[in-house]
Amino acid sequence: MSLIPLSPLICAVLAAVLFKLWRVCRALQRNSLRHLPGPESPSRVGGFAWQFWSTDPTEMHEEWVRSYGRTISYRILSDICLFTMDTKALAHILTHDAVFQKPYKVRTYIAELVGLGTLLTEGEQHRRQRKVVNPAFGPMQIREFTDLFLQKACQLRDILSLEVAIHGSVAQVDLYSWLHRMSLDIICEAAFSYDIGTLNVEARSNELCDAFRLVAQSVTRMSLWPMLRFFFPILRIFPEEQSRRFAKARQVMGEFASIRIDEKKREMEDNKIGKQVRRRRGDFLTLLVEANMGSSLPEGQRLSDETIIDECRTALVAGHDTTAITLAWFLYNVALYPNIQEKLRDELLSIPTDHPTMEELSSLHYLDCVLREVVRLFPVLPSSLRVATEDTTLPLSEPVNINGQAQDRIWIEKGTPIVISILAINRDKSLWGEDSFEFKPERWDNLPEAVSSIPGIWANNLTFMGGQHACLGYRFSLNETKVAVFTLLRAFELELGLPAEDVGRTPTMLMRPMRLSDPEAGPQLPMLIRPYRRD
Q: Is 471 annotated as belonging to a binding site?
């Protein structure tokens, strides 16, 4: 009797599964975290792998905290993971980035799209790249883009005004799609001084815009094969639909960035860009290439062209998609709460010009409060992961009971995954109060003292994270959002174009708005817009 030959794919899957089974048994017997309180695994093999992958685990984590305490453990495949809401522990994790790093499987998975830019590198390589990239994101550099933000926001306002004129007094539009276009236009000009023209309604579609659209729509629900590729990197030699789209987008972004880099180098060598031009508005790539070629930077610390291309890929993705998502959730909330929309518009109209300075926008207190509340309750990334790169201990502000004894430090073994729930911290009732789940901009006038312990870089939350891996471009995103809101809300009244209960968040890495009744349509935010007329 002859044996049926197995395909290489089946052999690889079986080998990976058997190896993981062996590791599960070994880990369960040896890991000290098994003594921490936590939930029973629903699967002997997978633990909570599928639940963690297929949905946002925030609500699951919050339920566990209520049942077992603020520092717990649970299993994903062979790994016993640590989850903590203890802000002292989180501050320790985020400030000790040499010990607690992004897991290899996470970095390589995301790198399929953006490469190894500052977002994903660790250790000395991260410090080298951040030293070169950081000057491009200083407050003065970001402030210089105010005119660009206003130009693109006004262009979008005029497009939406035309839609209203065509349809009569009210038009229904997919606002997320238009915000995505505006943000892509902005990042291409800000990063490369290149007009991609996605807001030009008469322009033909281009390959870069199409690539981003494919990535955004690649998954609105998480499936089994991408999960296996994530947890078992060896399986990534076998492509699937999402990885093919990522590879295509990465190729298109790389070719785009490579052309722009060659142009910048030629311009600099020909002395066509002087310091006066750069000070007026220096794009990200010019600042990056200048810093990398500067005489003050030792030869051994300079970045390769491929690394600069990866930084450009990172800027393209992180610089437009995340801002578009934040803007969409901002406008969703002002449409959901008309009283907030009216109060905010009154404040915006107190500025007697359509082209405010950043100082004038910064003076708008209620705008700042609403933005802080949006960022708090609608983080683009709901959770993050770290892994211990060596045996260490983790301090706690709230002792945990281990074998009947209260411990204010816990032993963390090398290789232990640590789950950081950004959204859970941002709405933790023990920190923010019993109304922490409610959208209340007024809370920022009288914050509980407890939130000062949250180790975030901005506004007492973890949305932009903290430590050396905090978001470099958070000022860029916040200022772009303020300008867009200022321009659109002065021109339009907004109303949701679907029932509020039909609006959900895509169960993907980035929490884009979607229509729950039509998830296959991809990210969207239908909105009714009417021209605002002062009485």
A: yes
Is the Cβ–Cβ distance between 32 and 411 less than 8 Å?
yes
Beta bridge partners of 461: 458
* Cβ neighbours for 337, distance < 8 A, ≥ 6 positions apart: 439
Residue 490 tokens read as 């002065």
- What span, in angstroms and rounded, lies between the C-alpha atoms of 308 and 496? 41
Which residue, among 219, 185, 188, 210, has the nearest Cα to 199 in the 3D structure?
Answer: 185
What does the pLDDT average to over 262-274?
69
Average pLDDT over residues 47-55: 81
Tokens 């923010």 belong to 432
Cα(81)–Cα(184) distance, integer angstroms: 37
Paired strand residues for 400: 407
Whether the pLDDT of residue 275 is over 50: the answer is: no
- Residue 438 corresponds to which tokens in the numbers above? 């409610």
- Could you give the CA distance from residue 140 to residue 281 in angstroms, rounded to a whole number? 10
Alpha carbons 421 and 381: distance in angstroms, whole number = 9
3-state secondary structure 204-222: CCCHHHHHHHHHHCCCCCC
pLDDT single digits (tens) 322-341: 999 999 999 999 999 999 99
Distance of CA 335 to the CA centre of its chain: 23
3-state class of 43 per DSSP? coil
**178 contacts 159 by C-beta, under 8 angstroms:** yes
> Other C-beta atoms within 10 Å of 195: how many?
12
Backbone angles phi, psi at 2, to 5 degrees: -85, 150
420, β-bridge pairs: 384
CA gap 86, 92 in Å, rounded: 10
Q: Strand, coil or helix: what is 317?
A: helix
Label residue 515 exposed, middle or buried (CB < 10 Å: 0-12, 13-18, 19+).
buried
Q: In which residue are the tokens 């000070």 written?
A: 279
Give the Cα separation of 324 and 332 in Å (integer): 12
pLDDT tier at 19, thresholds 50, 70, 90 = confident
Q: Provide the 10 A C-beta neighbour count for residue 339.
A: 8
The predicted-structure confidence for 293-321, as pLDDT tens digits, reads as follows 766 666 767 777 788 888 888 888 877 88
Q: In one letter, which amino acid is 162?
A: L
Q: Residue 221 carries which side chain, given as an amino acid letter?
A: R
Q: What share of the chain is helix, strand, coil (3-state, %, to 5)?
A: 55, 15, 30
Could you give the CA distance from residue 235 to residue 214 in angstroms, rounded to a whole number? Answer: 22
User: Is residue 146 within 8 Å of 357, Cβ to Cβ?
Assistant: yes
What lies within 8 Å, CB to CB, of 25 at 6+ separation is none
Q: Could you report how far apart the first and last alpha carbons of the chain are, in Å?
A: 89
SS3 369: helix
Assign 298 to helix, strand or coil.
Answer: coil
Classify strands 79-84 and 417-421 as parallel, antiparallel or unpaired.
parallel
Pairing outcome for strands 417-421 and 383-388? antiparallel
- Cβ atoms of 263 and 252 closer than 8 Å: no
